[in-house]
């Protein structure tokens, strides 16, 4: 069973004002902080980004990390297109996906999702649920999701919920992990992460 990590780093970052992947936490860019948690549990890791960030990533990332852009047909169609592109341009069995703006995520959470998959082998996706909220951007997907996602994108459906309604999903309740799902969208949230304000 080959597990590939997909780091989603192609968002517009409109509210943040600059690419969030390169914001820093503990003197490391967000993307590196998240990759450090992916590495212990995946066989390979890749970054999916947009065209205008390819060069910046390629100048910074280690040689063993592939950096790709969204498939041309689905450029700018959000995280669902990013997941599709990652699956389409690699040969894993399962894909651990995570957004680049979740600096508190841990390899322990990823390991939990993998353990759940071993129990629920028929599920096409393992989706954590924290405090009643589904977290499809920090989840485990089987490669068989690829044609389903492609069909959704072709038909103009780009919401993660469109995918969850179209595949067999196992939802796993995770307790006391709300902090791990914190994603940074604004400068104010960034300052909270940095501990600059209460």
Describe the structure in your own words.
With 198 residues, the protein is of the alpha/beta class. It has one domain (3-194): Spore Coat Polysaccharide Biosynthesis Protein SpsA, Chain A, CATH 3.90.550. Helices cover 31% and strands 22% of the residues. The chain has 7 helices and 10 strands. It has helices at residues 30-38, 54-60, 79-88, 107-119, 145-154, 160-164, 187-194; strands at residues 3-9, 24-25, 28-29, 44-49, 66-69, 94-99, 125-130, 133-134, 139-142, 169-173. Strands 1, 4, 5, 6, 7, 8, 9 and 10 form an 8-stranded mixed β-sheet that branches. Strand 2 and strand 3 (28-29) form a beta hairpin.
Secondary structure: elements and pairs:
Layout: E1 3-9, E2 24-25, E3 28-29, H1 30-38, E4 44-49, H2 54-60, E5 66-69, H3 79-88, E6 94-99, H4 107-119, E7 125-130, E8 133-134, E9 139-142, H5 145-154, H6 160-164, E10 169-173, H7 187-194
Parallel strand pairs: 1-4, 1-6, 4-5, 7-10
Antiparallel strand pairs: 2-3, 6-9, 7-8, 7-9
């Amino acid at each position: 069973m080959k597990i590939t990590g997909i780091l989603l780093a192609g968002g517009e970052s409109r509210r943040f004002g600059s690419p969030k992947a390169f914001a820093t936490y503990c003197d490391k860019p967000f993307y590196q902080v998240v990759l450090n948690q992916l590495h212990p549990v995946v066989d390979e890791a890749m970054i999916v980004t947009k065209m205008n960030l390819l060069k910046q990533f390629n100048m910074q990332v280690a040689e063993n990390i592939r950096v790709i852009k969204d498939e041309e047909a689905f450029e700018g169609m959000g995280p669902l297109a990013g997941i599709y592109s990652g699956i389409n341009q690699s040969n894993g069995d399962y894909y651990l996906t995570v957004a680049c703006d979740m600096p508190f995520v841990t390899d322990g959470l990823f390991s939990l999702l993998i353990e759940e998959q071993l129990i629920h082998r028929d599920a096409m996706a393992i989706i954590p649920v924290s405090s009643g909220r589904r977290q499809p951007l920090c989840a485990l997907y089987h490669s068989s999701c690829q044609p389903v996602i492609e069909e959704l994108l072709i038909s103009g459906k780009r919401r993660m919920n469109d995918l969850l309604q179209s595949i067999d999903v196992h939802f796993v309740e995770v307790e006391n992990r709300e902090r791990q799902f914190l994603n940074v969208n604004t400068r104010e949230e960034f300052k909270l992460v940095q501990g600059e304000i209460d």
